[in-house]
């Protein structure tokens, strides 16, 4: 069986690693991949923003199954391009991917289908934002400012007061700091509680939940600094009690899937619901339409069921009855990021210490922003460089192992959080 993985980050490294554990997988290709993935799969230098070209290459290579990691190709319709050629694909259609591609669409969708979320308003000008603040619709400050379009995890801002909120809004709407992604913005109340990532596999009919995970979005310890694509995550048994999981499935996940169906769209792939567990119950912060990153780096190592079996069932519409088995171990991922991340990451710094890090018990290294230079030296090539994941019998053991291994890896300007798998502060 030949499998194609789209993407080149830590999530895709974990996906390739997990897919290759099945004996029936003959070969894995990856577009574009990275230095770590190149040790496991054949990397192809193709443009993820050209869905039709990707589909044509997959057909020529005789690919049996394709799975997409990042959101951008899905929002651009890569699933539709593969479907048109009769190719098996894991990932939602362009229409369904609007749940992540547009914050405005997602919030208005939740409103239409009575899915619990924060109070919100949409605006396209600074004057409209001022009117919203004057109306007290959002019940004071702090407020959350979200760019409508895709911004690689960097389009969400928490403003403590009106002055800072308007500064962010001007940066998005007037100065276009995020380009077209900030052409419209969502303003919403700032929810208090504990953030949790809740994901399900679905083939458009049946759905199967994954183990929950918790990620750390902000750059600095104590949830300080700018938002990033994710600085670490953990997953452990009993993160969510069964009753709460059933509530999330019944009041959030199922209404989301049936709501899309009622609007003529079937969701097929991985639905990620970013939740805030508030005193009033779980509320949706955001949707993603694929595996989270770095959440995939702690969820997939705990999956005992062959990943390729799950992906095949999603593609073929046979997910119903498939029981997922999970390890009772805990997993912690610490992301090592480049100097200057997230605003202006510096590339080209040599990376050392990986061999020592891999000797630590329970440790897995998932490459993200890495490449080989002309001399064959492993160097940094992106914002998030390597995800250091560790498994342990307890969360404390997994955390200790991850940080011990992370300390072995060196590159100029390395930055990482020291509080992954510690309690997240509430706003």
TrEMBL record:
Belongs to the GARS family. It comes from Chloracidobacterium thermophilum (strain B). GO terms for molecular function: ATP binding; metal ion binding; phosphoribosylamine-glycine ligase activity. GO terms for biological process: 'de novo' IMP biosynthetic process; purine nucleobase biosynthetic process. Pathway: Purine metabolism; IMP biosynthesis via de novo pathway; N(1)-(5-phospho-D-ribosyl)glycinamide from 5-phospho-alpha-D-ribose 1-diphosphate: step 2/2. The keyword Ligase applies. Its EC number is 6.3.4.13. This is Phosphoribosylamine--glycine ligase. Keywords: ATP-binding, Ligase, Nucleotide-binding, Purine biosynthesis. Coiled coil: none annotated. Residues 107-316 form the ATP-grasp domain. It holds the Pfam family GARS_A. Its cofactor is Mn(2+); Mg(2+). The gene is purD. It catalyses: 5-phospho-beta-D-ribosylamine + glycine + ATP = N(1)-(5-phospho-beta-D-ribosyl)glycinamide + ADP + phosphate + H(+). InterPro entries: ATP-grasp (IPR011761), ATP_grasp_subdomain_1 (IPR013815), PreATP-grasp_dom_sf (IPR016185), PRibGlycinamid_synth_ATP-grasp (IPR020561), PRibGlycinamide_synth (IPR000115), PRibGlycinamide_synth_C-dom (IPR020560), PRibGlycinamide_synth_C_sf (IPR037123), PRibGlycinamide_synth_CS (IPR020559).
């Amino acid at each position: 069986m030949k499998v194609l993985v789209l993407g080149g980050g830590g999530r895709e490294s974990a996906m390739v690693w997990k897919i290759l554990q099945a004996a029936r997988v003959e070969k894995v290709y990856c577009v574009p991949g990275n230095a770590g993935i190149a040790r496991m799969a054949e990397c192809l230098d193709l443009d993820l923003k050209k869905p039709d070209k990707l589909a044509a290459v997959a057909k020529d290579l005789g690919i049996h199954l394709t799975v997409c990691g990042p959101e951008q190709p899905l929002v651009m319709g890569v699933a539709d391009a593969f479907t048109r050629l009769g190719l098996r694909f894991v990932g939602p259609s362009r229409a369904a991917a609007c749940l992540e591609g547009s914050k405005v669409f997602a919030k208005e969708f939740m409103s239409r289908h009575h899915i619990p979320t924060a109070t919100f308003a949409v605006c396209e000008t600074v004057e409209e934002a001022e009117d919203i603040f004057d109306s007290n619709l959002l019940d004071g400050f702090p407020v959350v400012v979200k760019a409508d379009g895709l911004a690689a995890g960097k389009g969400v801002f928490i403003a403590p007061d009106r002055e800072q909120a308007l500064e962010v809004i001007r940066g998005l709407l007037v100065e276009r700091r995020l380009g077209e992604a900030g052409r419209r913005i969502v303003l919403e109340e700032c929810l208090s509680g504990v953030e949790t990532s809740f994901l399900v596999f679905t083939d458009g009919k049946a759905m199967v939940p994954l183990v929950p995970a918790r990620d750390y979005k902000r750059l600095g310890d104590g949830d300080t600094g700018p938002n990033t694509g994710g600085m670490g995550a953990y997953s452990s048994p009993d993160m969510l009690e069964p009753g709460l999981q059933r509530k999330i499935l019944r009041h959030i996940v199922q209404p989301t899937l049936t709501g899309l169906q009622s609007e003529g769209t079937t969701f097929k792939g991985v639905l990620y619901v970013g939740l805030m567990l508030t005193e009033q119950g779980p509320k949706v912060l955001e949707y993603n339409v694929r595996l989270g990153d770095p959440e995939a780096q702690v969820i997939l190592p705990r999956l005992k069921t062959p990943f390729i079996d799950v992906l095949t069932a999603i593609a073929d519409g046979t997910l119903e009855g498939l029981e997922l088995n999970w390890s009772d171990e805990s997993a912690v991922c610490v992301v090592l990021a480049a100097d200057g991340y997230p605003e202006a990451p510096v590339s080209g710094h040599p990376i050392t210490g990986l061999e020592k890090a891999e000797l630590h018990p329970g440790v897995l290294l998932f490459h993200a922003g890495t490449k080989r230079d002309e001399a064959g030296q492993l160097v940094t090539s992106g914002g998030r460089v390597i995800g250091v994941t560790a498994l342990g019998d307890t969360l404390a053991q997994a955390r200790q192992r991850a940080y011990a291994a992370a300390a072995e890896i060196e590159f100029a300007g390395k930055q990482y959080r020291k509080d992954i798998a510690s309690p997240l502060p509430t706003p």
